[in-house]
Amino acid sequence: MGSGRSAALEEKRMAARLEGSGLTRFQIRVLLEVMRIPRGETRTYSEVARMAGSPRAYRAVGTAVRRNPFAPRIPCHRVVRSDGSIGRYSGRGGAKAKMLMLKSEGAVG
DNA sequence: TTCCTGACGCTCG
DNA sequence: GCGAGCGCCAGGA
């Protein structure tokens, strides 16, 4: 990807927008971490929960990403289950589209 | 404040 | 290898 500077700027603007979207602090933190996942890579819900500050809140992570108001901006499709499964996807196309996006990014074979 | 739900995780049969 | 059950944390009604 390009410059990390614009990415940081984007993240800052995102945080401001998320706060105005009626999301909670925890959910914002989760979505912010998800947005930092590099293209072509994936993270498990447990990892995201850990990054968000609550290692055992993987359930709440699912609730948070499901509320993701910035679908393409925040790559929630890069969050998969710990067993390697795609998991669910409430966005357009469901889990099928999720897998397609991951294949497009080279995250999966 | 209490109960129910959820894009999960792990164990057990 | 697979399905069912229980535990986990956060949020909404």
What is the secondary structure topology, with strand pairs?
Elements: H1 4-19, H2 25-35, E1 43-44, H3 45-52, H4 58-66, E2 79-80, H5 94-105
Parallel strand pairs: 1-2
Helix pairs in contact: 1-2, 2-3, 2-4, 3-4
This protein binds a DNA duplex (13 and 13 nucleotides) through residues 24, 26-27, 44-46, 49, 54, 56-68, 76-77, 79-83, 86-91, 95, 98.
In short:
With 109 residues, this protein is mainly α. The chain has a single domain, classed as Winged helix-like DNA-binding domain superfamily/Winged helix DNA-binding domain (Arc Repressor Mutant, subunit A, Orthogonal Bundle). It has five helices and two strands.
Descriptive overview:
The structure is a single chain. With 109 residues, the chain is mainly α. 51% of the residues lie in helices and 4% in strands. The protein contains five helices and two strands. The protein has a two-stranded parallel sheet with strand order 1-2. Helix 1 runs antiparallel to helix 2, helix 2 crosses helix 3 and helix 2 crosses helix 4. It binds a DNA duplex (13 and 13 nucleotides) through helix 3, helix 4 and strand 2.
